[in-house]
User: What shape does this take?
Amino acid sequence: MASPAQALKARHRQVREGHPEALRLRIHRALSWLVRSEQVEDDPDTRFILQWIALNAAYAREFGREESERDRARGFVGILVGLDKDKRLHKALFDQFTGPIRTLIDNKFTFEPFWTAMRNHDASTRWQESFASSKKAALGAVVKGDTAKVLGIVFDRLYVVRNQLVHGGATWNGQVNRSQITDGTAILGALVPLIIAIMMEHPAQNYGDVLYPVVG
Assistant: This one.
């Protein structure tokens, strides 16, 4: 039985001729990394990084100087949720991953202001107050079933995990704070294929120009 990424790759071969070049390239790149991620089941650190590259390949685009990575990701999430008429993203979040999402939300090590306070030797309680407020808002979004908001929060928290790994802030296969890696790979493993599928089903949507286009 074909894996989710292999099934998407076969489907992409059937429909890519009718897609704009930018979308075709996005999907081709994203699937190449997603397929590779499925081949490293025994290495969650590497799998997480490969899944994140697949996600980045799907949505990365040129952006203005005033737009942050977070703004860009949230805008992309909003587009996807609007296109997802069958609510597949909603079902994945709230049927499969309510527990892991709550764990991520409750984990200070996936909350960037905690690390900022550590780096700045900030002994005040500001990050804790911000953390409590963030958790309350996030759990409220979970209770309300606000797909776009919860997706944005999940990617925001996983972005911290991504930074720890990519910037050498963690030990490969280390024993510290493994839950966010385990949960992160499971969440991305479910969400990234859905994101790619939704994009393929809506080729008329403008996803923006790709970063690093192919140059002859």
